[in-house]
Amino acid sequence: MEENKIVPTLYEWAGGMPMFLELFDKFYDKVLADDILEALFKHMSKEHRLHVAHFVAEVLGGPKIYSESEGSHFVIIRHHLAKHLTQQQRLGWMQLLLQTADELELPDDPEFRSAFLAYLEWGTRIAVINSKLDKLEEPPDMPMPIWGWGVPGGPYQS
Ligand code: HEM
């Protein structure tokens, strides 16, 4: 990355809130049509897809809609407790999300995709770990995660 360039957040580079809303809307449509994932999600609330879109957008540098009016990192972890998620389910979740990202033509530059994938790997593995627990020992005011560009430092801007 060149010097003196303003580095956008991952949220901005992805396309902002309209992109996150569409991404998770289409993604959960696919989840409900998926043999492996349907049973897990068939009772999810109407707001589920909106909350996940707001959460991921915030982690990637977007507005604090999730943490200020919908939940917290503690709350999101609590949603996964005792769900006993499997690696097969996690991989199915990842695969459908990445497929949706391609279909919606999220930026596919190596810098963005490697950072986005790193966050998804981290977040889904945390979800699986927490799903094996029955209760949370963490403090309720634990901070929201914040994800950045990692080693590339930003998108390639010529
Ligand atoms: C980055 C990764 C993930 C994020 C950010 C995330 C986010 C969330 C959020 C915000 C909720 C609560 C939604 C609400 O307010 O109604 C939730 C619930 C849930 N998540 Fe995740 N999640 C992730 C990964 C996963 C994975 C990998 C699975 C399983 C394959 C999973 C399964 C579930 C289930 C079963 C629920 C409860 C659904 C219900 O209410 O019936 N999550 N997740």
From TrEMBL:
InterPro entries, per database record = Globin-like_sf, Globin/Proto, Hemoglobin_trunc
Instruction: Provide a Gene Ontology MF annotation, just one.
Output: metal ion binding
Q: Which UniProt keywords apply?
A: Heme, Iron, Metal-binding, Transport
Matching CDD domains, A to Z? TrHb2_O-like
One of the Pfam families matching this protein, by short name: Bac_globin
Q: Which residues bind heme?
A: 51
Name the record gives this protein:
Globin
Source organism:
Mucilaginibacter agri
